[in-house]
Structure formats: C-alpha cells, structure tokens
C-alpha cells in the first residue's frame, strides 16, 4: 500500500503542476478588451481532449502502481531471483529521453508557428521512439539467449510484464504520433495541429516518467527510495 501511496502522490503532484498551467483559474467574464479577443481566449481554455487524456493517464498510472506493489510483495518470497539488467536498457532510456525532448521542442515550435521545427521534432520523436522499441526487443532476445525465460522465475515474469506493457503503450502512442506527423506534412489547421502535438508531448512525458520508475525498480534503486518515503510518512 505504501508503494501505491507514494506513486499516487507523485502523480497528484504532476497533475497539479500541469493543471496550474492550463488557465483553470481564469475568469473570462472579468476580462476586458475587444470582442474579437475572446475568440482567442476560448482556444486557451482547457480542451476536452486534454482532460480525457489526463483521466486516461491517471488510470494507466494506477495500473502500473498496482503492478509495482505486487512486484514488491512478490520479491519478498524466497524463490525470487532477480535477473541481471541488460546494459542495452541504458541506451533505450536515452532514446526515450530524446524522444520526449523532441516532442517538447515540437510543442514549443507549434505555439510559435514554426512548422519546419514542428516537423523536425515530430520526425525525431518518432525515430527515437522506434529505436526504443527495437532496443527493448533486443534486450528481450538477449535475456532469452542467456536462459532468462518468461516462466523460469517470478522476477523474469515481472520484467517481461512491466517492459511489455510499457512497450505496448509506446506503440499505441506511435499511432497518434504518426497521425500528428501526417497532419503536419499535409497542412493541418494550426490550432488543431498545436493541440495534437501538445497531447503527444503530454503522453510521451508521462510514459518517460513511468519508464524511469520501472527502470529504477528493475535496477533495485526503488526499494531504497520507498524506504526513505516510508520514513518520511511514518
């Protein structure tokens, strides 16, 4: 339960920071200016798509938190044998970090109307995300070649489950990223393209955060962090 609590507190803090940047506390009826100015204000209000994505990410976060909690409970049993962490995961992590940075740059460029930079950022994000998935598959093959199969040990099962679920979410994100990239090259409306890029960036930042948590868990660093949090909460 403490693992879920810590994870949910981090998610709540991230969500609070994000919502504070979405003009939720604005009072448009008190704004002064020309009537045409209010049309632009409507576009700055929190879109329904962002709310929907935020709810979806909260559900996904809870799912990973439950699996993480099960991971900690299962590893306390005597038959748990942690498998070695492939060095390739470090490279994969770097690819995902670059992908998230590229989408953030694309989002900033979309706000400024810099279409060339938007296209470059989207293409870079897609390439690095694909590199991440290919690297994850190669890490799986490396572990299988060394005899660390799915059913050999509970630790192996959790490794494949966590990395596999995260990879599926990346794969699903690539579908949305592909549609956004196609819109950027086909002359989509600037407002619609900007929203699509921001949604992709939001989704990618969340998956990067989840992956860093998974990586820390598999590397054994999370146990120390949880112990520190337990001490702060008690």
List keywords for this structure.
single chain; 234 residues; mainly alpha; Four Helix Bundle (Hemerythrin (Met), subunit A); 0% strand; elongated
Biggest sheet: strands, sense, closure? none
SSE succession: HHHHHHHH
Estimate the mean pLDDT confidence.
83
Distance between the termini: 13 Å
Assign the CATH class: Mainly Alpha
| Beta-strand percent range | under 5%
Low-confidence stretches: 23-31, 33-44
Q: Summarize this, please?
A:
With about 230 residues, the protein is an all-alpha fold.
Strand and helix layout:
Layout: H1 2-20, H2 37-44, H3 48-74, H4 88-112, H5 115-145, H6 154-185, H7 190-219, H8 221-233
Helix pairs in contact: 1-3, 3-6, 3-7, 4-5, 4-7, 5-6, 6-7
């Amino acid at each position: 339960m403490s693992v879920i609590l810590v994870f949910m507190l981090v998610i709540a803090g991230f969500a609070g920071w994000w919502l504070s940047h979405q003009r939720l506390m604005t009072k448009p009826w008190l704004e002064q200016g020309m009537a045409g100015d209010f049309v632009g204000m409507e576009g700055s209000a929190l879109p329904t798509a962002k709310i929907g994505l935020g709810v979806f990410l909260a559900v996904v976060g809870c799912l990973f938190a439950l699996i993480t909690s099960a991971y900690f409970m299962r590893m306390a049993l005597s038959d748990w044998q942690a498998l070695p962490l492939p060095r390739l995961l470090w490279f994969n992590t770097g690819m995902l970090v670059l992908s998230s940075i590229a989408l953030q740059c694309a989002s900033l460029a979309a706000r400024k109307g810099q279409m060339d930079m938007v296209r470059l950022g989207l293409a870079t994000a897609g390439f690095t995300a694909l590199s991440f998935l290919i690297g994850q598959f190669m890490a799986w093959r490396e572990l299988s070649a060394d005899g660390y199969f799915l059913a050999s040990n509970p630790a192996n099962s959790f490794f494949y489950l966590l990395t596999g679920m995260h990879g599926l979410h990346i794969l699903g994100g690539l579908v949305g990223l592909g549609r956004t990239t196609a819109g950027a090259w086909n002359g989509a409306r600037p407002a619609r393209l900007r929203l699509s890029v921001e949604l992709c960036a939001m989704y990618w930042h969340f998956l990067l955060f989840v992956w860093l948590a998974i990586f820390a868990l598999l590397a054994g660093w999370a146990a120390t962090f949880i112990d520190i949090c337990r001490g702060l909460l008690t």
